[in-house]
Amino acid sequence: MEQSQFSAWAAEYSQKTNLSLAGTRLYVGDDDTQACFTQSDLAKAQDWGMIPVYNQAESQTYHAIDATVPVDEVPDARELTGAGAIDFAQDHMPVSAELMREARQDVDFTGIRIAVCLILEPKTAVLLRQLKQAGAIVGAYCGSEANDERVAAQLREEGIPVAYNPDWTPEQAHQGALDLLDEIQPNIIIDDGASFARLAAMERPELMEHIIGVAEETTSGIRAFQAMQDAGALSFPVIAVNDSMLKTGFDNAHGTGETCVTTMQRILGHDCFAGKNVCVVGYGPVGRGFAHRVRALGANVTICDTNPVVALQAVFDGFGADDINHAIPESDIVISATGVRHTIAMQHLQIMKPNAVLSVIGGIANEIALDEIDGFQAENKREIRDLDVPSGPRIRLISEGDGVNYTVGGGNPIEIMDLSFAVQISAVTHLLRNQGKLQNGLQKLGHDIDCNIADIALRVRGYQASQAVADNGYDWTLTRFAENEKEQHHAA
Fold this sequence. Notes:
- With 492 residues, the protein is α/β, with parallel strands linked by helices.
- It is built from 18 helices and 17 strands.
- The protein has a 7-stranded parallel sheet, with helices on both faces. Strands 12-11-10-13-14-16-15 form a 7-stranded mixed sheet, with helices on one face. Strands 2-1-3 form a 3-stranded parallel sheet.
- Strand 7, helix 8 (195-203) and strand 8 (213-216) form a beta-alpha-beta unit.
């Protein structure tokens, strides 16, 4: 059997299918002597979170990949129609479907008005479909830099309003967002970056009388709502979806980490990280997921984090840790993974190596200080450009400084977003079940909700969590001294 190179295979399979590599069974042949990957590449696959199997029957189960099929024979989901792409995603999102089925048993979504401000791609469309089928009135807004036009067109055909136009100026995009708020008059906002809820609170305060609550998707959004709360300006309940382990621990670490790597591989070449010095700024779940994967592909990774505890964690994970001003001049590739404005400031741009690559993973507006470069005008969907830094070098900028995987790639993998949207559905359900009872401000979902989602996700993959004995005899008064005396008494 002809052997493949994991880095090339992973990049192409991920980009063609938008399916998750992490958490999958990977059928590689009937035994390790006939595997389609070398032992070295199998180790890389395991570093990415894949589970090699040698029984072909296991390749027929849900969430398994048959790597013996040449990757050029794998269908390309990017070529599907809008309806086809949404249906393909829906076929790989059983967890959120089960959560919605459970929710509808005791929660009535009929007539609930829900405004959604998320990256608009096939996975998001599945969520919108689910809410609409449950009886909710839904509408979506998306910025032009993070939109799949075939999906927007299909949703409009299905009767779901979509506020999006690729030719909008910033002023028109602002007005488009307000128009959707006016049209939907939401009871619930599913938000990304606290964008829609803050807009409503500041420019459509009369609509806030109808707000039951907000479900916030992102780290940057939670940060914004926390600032509102600290200022005494948060006058509605906000469910911190991002604080769920099923979101942060999977969407951020595995979803964003994985697809940012494979999108950059598509742009720069599948071996673009091999032997390169890579500086990852920010070692939260996104930065950590990215760093581990590019190290598996041969990169020499240095972590820059302002929190000394996190920097120490990076060291114990086997990475170097350094100040950003020391690391950037030595780096071939610089990655911003913080979600903080001006993480890469002008002073950092000016000390980069000539022709070094600069990219944002995750990301908010101006995470790189491009607003301080006179004449810089972002072009929608542009993958790479040479950028002349004032009083600095010419560098290579990926995706105009926006989050690389969702602007010029397919976004987070389908099965990963299945988990995130299961949390979103749980958040919306929680708001409806407890309408009028929740305090204003940020709050988390219970641990039992994460456990329920995880149980479903394990079950559909053919796995299960373990169980403990019903009674282990624990008594808080039973110290080690009493235990020893008890054992001696029985021995006598």
